[in-house]
Structures
1.
Amino acid sequence: MSLFKYSSPTAFYPLAGKLVPWFAALAAIFAVIGLYLGLFVAPEDFQQGEVYRIIFIHVPAAWMAMVIYLAMAMYGVMALTFNTRLSAMMMEALAPTGAIFTALALWTGALWGKPTWGTYWAWDARMTSTLILLFLYIGYLALINAIEDKKRADKAGALLVIVGSVNVPIIYFSVKWWNTLHQGASVSVTASPKMAAIMLWAMLIMAIACWTYAITISLVRVRAIILERERGRSHSTRVANTLSATNIVAGS
Amino acid sequence: MNWAAFFSMDARAFYMWGSFGAFVVAIMLEITLVRLRGKRAQAEIGEELMADKAKRPAQ
Amino acid sequence: MTATLNSLTQIDSPVFQPERGFIVAMARDARLAARSKGEAIQALAFFVVVVSLFPLAIGPESALLKRIAPGVVWVAALLSVLLTLPRMFANDHADGTLEQLALSVYPLPTIVAGKIVAHWLMTGLPLAVLSPLLGLQFGLASGELAVLCVSLILGTPVLSMIGAIGAALTLGVRGGSILLALLVLPLYIPVLIFGAGAVEQAMVSIDFSANLSLLGAIVLLAGLAVPFAVAAALKISLD
């Protein structure tokens, strides 16, 4: 299959380079449309006033936090079963972006919660599981950075994320369970019962913007990772040829 | 459109712009750091290739 | 030591039984631990000390202490197990035994399962047995003490299992013990919730059996999957 050709990092490097501008443009376009709809077109919320507009970034960020972890787990399965280096590099490229989106989801959630619920933080099931998800991202990043041998770091990270992803539903269930056990912190998260169509559209478009942004930034990051890994191996003429053919070295 | 009213967001500007501001700052920071990382990686591997070429001039 | 190691690398019975790896590994680890009782006792002492710190930090108000007792005992148990995790594979790694175990005639998951059970017998079980005494200090009634003990007996095996994955992944990594805590603690959360939750429900006279059943289900599911994950992690670390 021709797709497998791109599972080699040196073959993927130029392809990723070609894809980056397209995804970056998409991300920019969707962000502009989404922000315009969210900030100017969507009407003021009847109950929450203007501040509800935070959900146009909060909800996409929370989605991305989960989606990126899932994507990492899938790459992890690939890394361990097919032994492809590129899958592990993609995991490494996705993790910081996932962690940033998770942190942003928590931060924007807190700033939305204060005017809406009257508190920055409640030990609500969703907030608590998002916090735990952030811990999982941090654990992965700490592990792969602590292991010097890259090959081992790749595989250990892949295994950790797979174990983590098996745990994510259990964690979510247990936190929900815990939350119903302690009634004190329950808050109704349903933003508003019937959301106007325009609000939904703004949110979806912002989600697409975040999604394409995540693809763009992780492609750029994976290119940097590929180069970092190829260091010290450039004596192999094959690698050197591929890299200079793709104009990595300006003027060479 | 009244811009002052837009920016004050029902006098909840702190929450509103605190969220959007953090979002923009985080993404700008990420883009900058990733670009720097890419540039550094390119420079390092470029040097390596040059040194490699210098070592084997006759071919 | 060499004698027990030989029993893992050679087939000693006329019929090859792969599951014997479990027994042999468990017996070997238990014997090694019995020879150095200090480590198990230290973990236990740590558990007691941490639990005793809470009344000193919070004050002697008995209603409040009783209210937080399940959480305090459970968190202390978590930390105490956490402290013993690095030693799970480190000694065997240092003297090269682990490489030999990985090449032994027995499947690595069975050996790993044996080591996990030995670890639980040395850490989790003593904690659970001691816990009613500590619960007593916090004013728990006898029924609640029993639930506390049972919840720990059901929950600590999972702590050993998840911990084994973390210990295998961080084998020989610098700064490994803090890293291990970072990896393992978030994964401990469901066990903590169900374990401490069972005791809390017993305290307010709600049916706590669902919590204990969930803990039991986690033990069974983890018991099926974890030995393979740990074996995979050890292979990654030893490569």
Note: Chains B and C do not touch (no CB pair under 8 Å).
2.
Amino acid sequence: MILAEVVGTVVSPVQIPVLERETLLLLRPIAPDGRAIGKTRIGLDRAQAGVGDRVLILDEGNSARQILSNKDAAVKTIVVAVVDYVETDGVTRYDHRERRS
Amino acid sequence: MYLARVIGRVVASTKSEGLAGVPLQWIQPLDEHGAALGDALVACAVVSTGPGDLVHFVDGREAALACPVTFVPVDAAILGYVEQAYANGVFLGREQQGAER
Amino acid sequence: MLIGKVVGSVVATRKDEKLENRKLLVVQVHDQHDQPKDQYVVAVDAVGAGHGDMVLYATGSSARQTALTENRPCDAVIMAIVDSWDLGGANVYEKWS
């Protein structure tokens, strides 16, 4: 799994059947301190995430197909969790709860 | 899964078995700002798209699962037409000028 | 998939037995403007391509999804011979011109 920030939304009215009624989000992979690293992806939202949230994403087909319970789904990237806080070396790098208050 | 722009069409009459009738298109992956992300590549257009369209695609083994015949040597497939992607206050959509269908 | 030109072939007598009777071609990658790149790949030929042909090749586990390469140690396969392509309506490559 990788850490990412939700940076946007994607509206796709014509797509393969397995993606129908799924929410697609634009995801920018980040380091624990929030620096952007790696390529921006599109993922299915399975965690009710919103723009600005930091999330955990799966970017691997086998795991994605397990989550969708569909062994033939052409899906690779899925948002599986909204991150509450991230801590490295004893320092809190990000805290979702602070953002909310 | 990534965001991309369709930039061209590829014609190939000799194809591996199972790929007859599946259009091939050049796509340029994009980041959330609409800037090019890496090199252009060729993908199978599983949904109907054309030059200038914003699309999302999947790479790797999962791409074959989106094709009509799933046992095919395909490592990139366009999964959907993106009407609009929204990130950082900017809307990305179909290219207005330039590319002709 | 990426597009490349077949610039040669590789012959290897001593190799994994699962690669026997498989034609190995050297492909030089071209970009969308038909400019050759300094990037080469050796791919198993699944469509009967020849020297000078512009071909499409697939990589990774997708490359094993042909009758010729299934369950074989292969990570690049030529899966189409390109006739032509255009970029935004302007013809870039034409095989029969």
Note: Residues 2-94 of chain C form a domain with the OB fold (Dihydrolipoamide Acetyltransferase, E2P) fold (CATH 2.40.50.220).
3.
Amino acid sequence: MNDWYVYLIVFLTGGTICFIGQILVIKTKMTTARILVTFVLLGVFLQAVGLFDAISQFCKAGINVPIIGFGASLAKGAINAVKSSGILGIFTGGLSACAGGIAAAIFFAFIFGIIFKAKTKKM
Amino acid sequence: MQDEVRNKKYNSYVEAKIAKTHAWPSLFNAFWVGGLICVFGQVCNDLILMWFPSISTQSAWAYTLIIIIFIAALLTGLGVFDKIGAFAGAGTIVPITGFSNSITSPALDFKNEGIIFGMCAKMFIIAGPVIVSGTVASMIVGIIYLFV
């Protein structure tokens, strides 16, 4: 497959997901937290019913970079860990699959929180 | 009763004022900014796989997300992210940049309340619900798969 074709699909699918997010922002006046939660749960659901891998094959970063991918890897981690280590997997699977992202977000937030000062919002 | 009528009037007044926040341009901006962030992620992912072919797809995605999280946190610290966010709306919230921003932004805002109870505690004011709901949902999925 041509490389540029892949980037076009990524652009269109990723853009569409953000477009849907923006519709939610406008129509329901959802806050950031609610939007993130909604999309994470959508990702968990898509992975749980087994649709995510097929979508991911097609959309690549278009669905993995949106927070849907984060939810999907939580669910995927849980499913795989349950298969390999049983009951313990329920507890360890989800978070360990996403540990990299969460730890990175916390670490960089801490470092930049120390370094930078909050910008006063100009009206 | 009278309050209700008044509230309704007020709400419709607010609605009339708010509804004009340029719905179509903001949808368009969310679309192309969000799309570009995803393309950037794809480029990162492709480069990582090109330079380190031995890496698994899963790890390549993890590296990609960490890079994007890093950039979003840095831009939040520099105060640039808020400007992009105001322009693109959900275009920056829905990608993983929004998750990163939702941790870094309160960390900066509450820094003056102290490092421990200000910055460290308030970091999760937005991301907390995301992590909690995601973890609980993934555990429910795990329980279902245990029995199926």
Note: The two ends of chain A are 48 Å apart (CA to CA).
